[in-house]
Amino acid sequence: MLKNKTIILGVTGCIAAYKSAEIVRELKNLGADVWVAMTSEAEKLVTALTFRTLSGNPVITDLFSDELSKIPVPHISLTKKADLILVAPATANILAKAAQGIADDALSTILLSAKCPVIFAPAMNTAMWDNDATRDNVLKLKMRGHKFVGPDSGVLACGDEGIGRLSPVHTIVEEAKKTLLPSQDLYGKKVIVTAGPTRETIDPVRYISNRSSGKMGHAIAMEAMKRGADVTLISGPTSQKAPEGVDFVAVNTASEMAKEVFGRFDGSDIVVMASAVSDFRPARTQSKKIKKSSKNSSLELEATTDILKELGKKKDGQILIGFALETDNLEENALKKLKDKNLDLIVANDETAFDSDSNKVTMITREGKPEDLPKMSKTEVANRILDKITTFSNKLTKQLIR
To answer: Which of 55, 194, 228, 321 measures 20 to 30 Å from 276, CA to CA?
Structure first.
């Protein structure tokens, strides 16, 4: 199941470190190539020889050890090939280092170099888990998109009872599988996602636009593709790279975006309008740069096509998702937009979402039930939106069967 997947397992100085050996064995049984990185504290609890024997690979305890001499710059080359980094058990110390970007040993240096998904499986005394510093560090790591498994509640090694036990090995391995093998619940669905701003030309050097970075739309497109969808991403000008595996269409103006969306709508199953389309454009575009000395300093505007509203009028079985950025009365204004434009779901947020890698949103369905999500990475937000979409899709399938 995990053939051709490379996993770095981080083992830290917790009494539960002996369970890490079982994690290695389970991952190897699933076909994964496992590399173990141990802290010096972990070595006092379980030997490196144990992990070397179970994994079949050198154990990383010191980036300058002779054992790694054949691997150039090991903390970089290993993280480049890794599909997942799993830290189990993860102590309060490694969570603090990862949250603050400290790299003073092999494992923390690997975490700072990571580009792949990271999962932490914490294990520590209840008092340490409940400490405000630990909670702050966990929140920071979650906002960066890192995942957590546990800790669980029960009797701890010291005899205390509370939250802090390492989650069962099978639970940790299942989370690794879920991360490496995303659900294909959107397999075969044709999905249109729009992203970024539009630019409405004033003259050859000026335009009307907004602060949208396109990060939210790009995240939705990427995660939908991972979940098996056939994705078309229609994006205004952004600094974001076109995701691999997605049909990418670049546009500039609201009218260009409308043309591309309308032309594909009939053949789509799901449309997510995450773009910030300009509501207005100049009534007249000047062919030459407007001089500062120009007598006419006013700018006449006209409304652009309301793409969402037009899609709402003509939809026939498609699932239609909109976004609402509001500076006041967030839920009230978003609900009005949902009803006026015949949407299935609206995702509401405020202006703090601009240029950020994280977002705090409220999802509202046609039943008018708001669901407030905590601040999280835009990748996590994307998956929560897609989770909601799949419930709509399943309901529609059941209705068709009936």
So the answer is: 228
Helices (H), 117-253: 126-130, 132-143, 169-180, 215-226
14 belongs to the catalytic site = no
> What pLDDT is attached to residue 294?
64
Which of the listed residues 118, 153, 180 is the one where a domain comes to its end? 180
Task: Kindly state whether residue 1 falls inside one of the protein's structural domains.
Answer: no
For the record, the structure tokens of 334 come out as 């978003």
Q: Is the pLDDT of residue 25 over 90?
A: yes
Tell me if 107 is assigned to some domain: yes
Q: Which of 135, 159, 180 is the last residue of a domain?
A: 180
- Range of 86-95, 111-120, 287-296 with top mean pLDDT: 86-95
CATH of the domain at 196: 3.40.50.10300
| Residue 68 pLDDT grade (very low, low, confident, very high; cuts 50, 70, 90) | low
Task: Report pLDDT for 399.
Answer: 43
Do 49 and 145 lie in one domain? The reply is yes
CA separation for the pair 232, 357 (Å, rounded): 22
- Contact assessment for residue 192 and residue 334, using Cβ atoms and an 8 Å cutoff: no
Separation of alpha carbons 312 and 85, rounded Å = 43
* DSSP code for 291: P
Of residues 133, 155, 157, 158, which has the active-site annotation? 158
Same domain, 210 and 352: yes
Residue 199 lies in a domain: yes
* Cα 120 from Cα 300, distance rounded (Å): 55
pLDDT value for 289: 86
Q: Which tokens is 39 given? A: 């802290």
- Alpha carbon 183 to chain centroid, angstroms: 15
Is the domain of 321 the same as that of 250? yes
- Alpha-carbon distance of 142 to 375, in angstroms, equals 9
> Is the predicted pLDDT of residue 201 greater than 80, yes or no?
yes
Listed residue (177, 243, 183, 173) closest to 214, CA to CA:
243
List Cα–Cα distances, 80 to 6, 112, 150, 192, in angstroms.
10, 12, 27, 31
